[in-house]
Amino acid sequence: MTPPHPTPHFETPLLPTSLLHPAARLRDAASGELLGGADLAGRVAGTAAEFTALPPGVVFLRVGLDLSSVLRYLGAFEAGRAVALLDPAQDRDVLDDLVARFRPAAVFGVAVDDVAPGYAAAGSDGWVRDSAEGVVPHRDLAVLLPTSGSTGNPKFVRLSRRALLANASAIADVLGIGPDEVAPTSLPLHYSYGMSVLNSHLLRGATVLLEGSGVVARPFWDAVTEYGATSLAGVPYHYEMLRRMRFDPAKYPTLRTLTQAGGKLRVELVAEFNDRITAVGGRMFVMYGQTEAAPRMATVPAGRLVEKLGSAGPALPGGSFSVRTEDGSEVVEPGVTGEVVYRGPNVMMGYAESEAELAAGDVVGGVLATGDLGYLDEDGYLFITGRLKRIGKVFGNRVSLDDLEELVKHLGAAAAVPAGDKVVVWLDQASRDGCRAAAKVLAEALHLHVTGFDVRPVDGFPLLPSGKIDYRSLEAQV
Amino acid sequence: MSLNDRLRDVFVDALQLDGDVDVENLKYRDIDAWDSVGHMALVAAIEDEFDVQFETEQVIDMSSFKVAGDMLRGLGVGE
């Protein structure tokens, strides 16, 4: 990606240097323990000290929604130690591949009875690399997050300390987060949206309620009630679930803010949830982001949601959008559709596919070509209309439709099309068992729930006059 | 088919379970397939199969195969 303009310099005055506001608190729903002030700072300093003693390299954290995971994450941040946040349920072979490619200084949140080669067990759930030789990550690098949806070798998005702090601060500003807020963990921390909920609340002295059972389980809602959660963050499938559950905010008198990101929610549902929450005096925010932007780029102010239904919102404070047209020129005029380009202090430093790239500095200059197609309106509000490449979203995770077809080609010719929060994969001349087998292959390869892949048999594909598959016609059949 | 047999089929189909899973003793989050995403697919499939509608409280309390069966009995579904 080549920036079309000289590298911009983003002024981010008064940015804090720590994620941890003195008033920030963590509540562990399982034990009821509330950790704040000097106690929290002391525990974070304790984990920071452990990280300082490790050999050079990135630290892999398999992060659950629990106190020990969050203390480690914060400790690493305070210690200036680059950490990769990983799914604790990730398969061992995927972890082994990442360990081999990135040679982390240590891995935490793993079983110690089966340690990877070149590592020694440390404590009850860690591995530390035997070799003291390793690449020192760039000093700006704070967090690495896996990019969703790549079916081959997963790569990391490199996020700087400044990008994370700038984004957490901008999010807290537009959502009005203050010390009275209590945010429950409805999303995993290795997912950029979940991480940003944690960051933006701790930065402003709010409370984060650690609860790991998810919005469809009783313990989550019991914790919301008992500990007075004030907000709920969800991706489109959460809102689909909440609708099916007939979620009624009147039952949760403290919960008055809904936020939505992670893909476009149907406008009917945006309007419906906005009605439900405003009826009880609350607010709903629709937001837009990508992991590559740490992750937030835009938020629709709650007061303009109805008027701007379907919009992703204006750029966050400190950021800006433009649209790159087919001839390569960038415009900000309203109504022109093209690739959405974002500039801001929260844009990633770049990607990393191996250990050597951890030492690299910023290679993108604060400019992110999003790969999304869209236009700006006369008020600078962004409207997303599609993707440049053939991309689908499965429960909020980006997947390449071409990759899906490739993964199941041994089972038959396939054509994948997006279908809301799932993808439909048409499999030529397939049996029922063949379809189920294909769904399983995709779920396992992408580590996403099998119900996100709706594999259907088809008797030949509709074709365009050019002989290519007519994807529009297939989309219409979804 | 008995209620339990029908419910077992719904579980196997909605969660795409393998033949070796002990469906009748299954609890929420015992297996990867029954996570929050699987739960909503399951609830939808049970509602369709038995022509019932669950309330919020029932959706979040449906923590096992057995509980799901008891809920259906409570809604008047015959054995």
Automatic annotation (TrEMBL), chain A:
Keywords: Ligase. Signal peptide: none annotated. It comes from the Bacteria. GO terms for molecular function: ligase activity. It holds the Pfam family AMP-binding. Residues 77-351 form the AMP-dependent synthetase/ligase domain. InterPro entries: AMP-binding_CS (IPR020845), AMP-dep_synth/lig_dom (IPR000873), ANL_N_sf (IPR042099). This is Acyl-CoA synthetase (AMP-forming)/AMP-acid ligase II.
TrEMBL record, chain B:
InterPro entries: ACP-like_sf. SUPFAM superfamilies: ACP-like. This is Acyl carrier protein. It comes from Saccharothrix tamanrassetensis.
